[in-house]
Prior knowledge:
Distance between the termini: 24 Å
Strand content: 15-25%
Shape: elongated
Number of helices: 3
Structural class: alpha+beta
Amino acid sequence: MEDYIFKYKQRRIWFNLILGLVWLVFGILSLSFNDNDFLPGWQLIFGLVYIGLYIYQKKYQYIELKNNQLKSYYHFGKTINLAEVNRVKLFAGEYTMFTNTKKLTVALDGMEFESKVKFKSLMDEIQESIILEQTKV
């Protein structure tokens, strides 16, 4: 299998940037008008978190297929070796891959359309290889 990067929907990435900028503006306005909040500048923190999320998702995207390993960057990463996958389950738009020791769940709703099509074909290939392996035994 060739290396491939499964991308987030661009709308999702840009939404995080816009939300971060809005929170930053609210934070600056809150500090400039000197509101007596319990935690002054909490909007700035939210803004920085969302902008950080935008940068992280823009740089790492959703999932990377490299050297027959699938690495999910969602929630700071999880890697699974595709050769060790012994079961694939599809439920409610999420693929879950199982090995003897690991489990990786991938939701398709946040994926770009081309990446979603490629990911589904990859899952079909894996399921076919699992079936062939089980029939050999």
